[in-house]
TrEMBL record:
Keywords: Antiport, Cell membrane, Ion transport, Membrane, Transmembrane, Transmembrane helix, Transport
One of the GO biological process terms: monoatomic ion transport
Pfam families linked to this entry: MatE
Record's GO cellular component terms: plasma membrane
Transmembrane segments: 21-44, 56-78, 98-122, 134-154, 166-184, 204-232, 261-287, 299-321, 333-355, 367-385, 405-425, 437-456
Protein name per its UniProtKB record: Multidrug-efflux transporter
CDD domains: MATE_NorM_like
Organism: Zymobacter palmae
Database matches in InterPro entries: MATE_fam, MATE_MdtK, MdtK-like
Length: 480
């Protein structure tokens, strides 16, 4: 292999790493907020911890539908950025702003009305259902701000500028963690401070699970305004002139963006609900089972942040290189991303094997919850490779704008295969019902099927893209 090729590979790895690290840091920060909240509420009461877990199971699907859709915008912006088309970036951003305004109101109203009905469907005990509803209603106050923040982050990521991810999520930790503790326990915790605080702060009542939602909503609004100010003032966005004046809705382009972005939101939703639906299905099994499932899911999700962040970076570079009309470099980036995803999965499993028990112990002091969580963690280790591969390959396919097939594969794999097998094993097993273990085996099968099918599709997509490039190159040569 030539030295120039080696240098090219090292340069590519460094470029991906520079994009990945802020995204990874931001995702870890987001997970840290969630994990710290779960830990805080777990030490407050098991009932409130279970209420947050069930509330998250209802909140997260809507959130991920939105966040996944915005990831499609990142790919679109990155393609325009590579092609040096700032006017198209500005136009598409304004179309997404209009979409976000309408979608934000619709989702908020839908979840507000549907929450009691969903709690009843999954037979959550009355006390658990009431606490979970209060948590969701508090979160919904911050939903419009969260959507605006995600929209601006997708814009920045598409511009190959991922640093704001880290900056503003660290800001979120600084705001959210002490605020969550205060809202859970009430103003009495301020008595221990070595300095004086206003009396009204001491009178804040303990909100329990609802306090987690209140703190999150306040944090969402603060970081959204901070990110908005950043995009107004930072020089990297100056050429786009996004905030110079609004661009009216262009319905044909809005329709095209929805066709591009919504399948990705559905794909992310399909995977996430494989986990969150289990939390709802576990509700009749009791608060301890729900709590064990939730803290294990949070730990597995924390490990998943690395391949997911790397996948986003690969998607950004693939989209950018295709905008630059460099399909060979896009292909090399994709193949390198797959190889590194395998390495990441192996490292994740080793980390869980060594530190998993200690990490789970942070979130609960209940011995039965901890023991069950350890067993679930071992099952989670089995699908690390499949999860890392499917995350990376689906991100690469987004970079190639092959979005709809990703949606079909994920829905088929996670629901028609994974969920069906999980429910069958949980309810019936082989000789006896497997309970929550059956659901986790089903998730493992679903993720593995997704990884295989996405791999086959990606090979076809890359080959087709290269054939198109060579055909164009041949036509240009003939014309000369």
């Amino acid at each position: 292999m030539s030295s120039s090729h080696e240098l090219s590979r090292r340069s590519l790895i460094w470029s991906l790493t520079r994009l990945t690290l802020p995204i990874w840091g931001a995702e870890i920060a987001q997970m840290a907020i969630s994990l710290i909240s779960i830990s805080m509420i777990g030490h407050y009461s098991t009932l409130d911890q279970a209420a947050v877990s069930v509330g998250v199971a209802l909140w997260v699907p809507m959130f991920l539908l939105i966040a996944g859709s915005f990831s499609g915008l990142t790919s679109v912006i990155a393609h325009h950025f590579g092609a040096r088309q700032p006017d198209k970036i500005r136009h598409d951003m304004w179309q997404m702003i209009w979409i976000t305004l309408v979608l934000g109101g619709s989702v908020t109203l839908l979840l507000w009305c549907a929450t009691p009905w969903l709690m009843a469907i999954f037979h959550a005990p009355p006390a658990l259902a009431e606490a979970g509803e209060h948590y969701i209603y508090a979160l919904l106050i911050g939903l419009p701000a969260l959507m605006g923040y995600l929209l601006l982050l997708s814009y920045s990521n598409g511009m190959n500028h991922t640093r704001p991810n880290l900056i503003f999520n660290i800001m979120a930790i600084i705001i959210d963690v002490p605020l969550t503790y205060l809202m859970i326990h009430g103003g009495t915790v301020l008595d221990a401070l070595p300095f004086a605080v206003p009396q009204w702060a001491h009178n804040i009542p303990a909100h329990g699970a609802q306090g987690c939602g209140i703190a999150s909503a306040i944090t969402y609004w603060l970081i959204m305004f901070a990110m908005l100010l950043y995009t107004v003032r930072h020089r990297i966005y100056r050429e786009v002139r996004l905030w110079q004046r609004p661009i009216a809705p262009h319905w044909a382009r809005i329709s095209e963006l929805l066709r591009t972005c919504l399948p990705l939101g559905v794909s992310v939703l399909a995977e996430a609900t494989l986990f969150t639906m289990v939390a709802l299905l576990c509700a009749p099994l009791g608060a301890q089972v729900v709590a064990a499932h939730e803290i294990t899911t949070q730990l597995i999700a924390l490990m998943f942040m690395t391949p997911m962040s790397f996948g986003i970076a690969v998607m950004i570079k693939v989209s950018t290189y295709r905008g630059l009309q460099q399909p060979q470099l896009a292909r090399r980036t994709a193949l390198l991303g797959i190889a590194m995803a395998v390495a990441i999965a192996v490292i994740n499993d080793l980390f869980l094997l060594i530190f998993g028990r200690q990490l789970l112990g942070i979130f609960t002091t209940d011995i039965e919850v901890l023991t069950l969580a350890l067993h679930l963690m071992l099952l989670g280790m089995l699908f690390q490779l499949s999860d890392a591969l499917q995350a990376t390959m689906s991100a690469i396919l987004r970079g190639y704008k092959d979005n709809r097939i990703v949606m079909y594969i994920t829905v088929l794999s996670y629901w028609a295969v994974g969920m069906v097998i999980g429910i069958a094993l949980a309810k019936h097993g082989i000789s006896a019902p497997w309970g929550v273990y059956g659901y986790w085996v089903g998730m493992t099968v679903g993720l593995t099927v997704a990884a295989v099918l996405l791999g086959l599709r990606l090979r076809h997509t890359i080959r087709k893209d290269m054939q198109h490039y060579h055909a164009q190159e041949g036509a240009q040569t003939s014309a000369l």
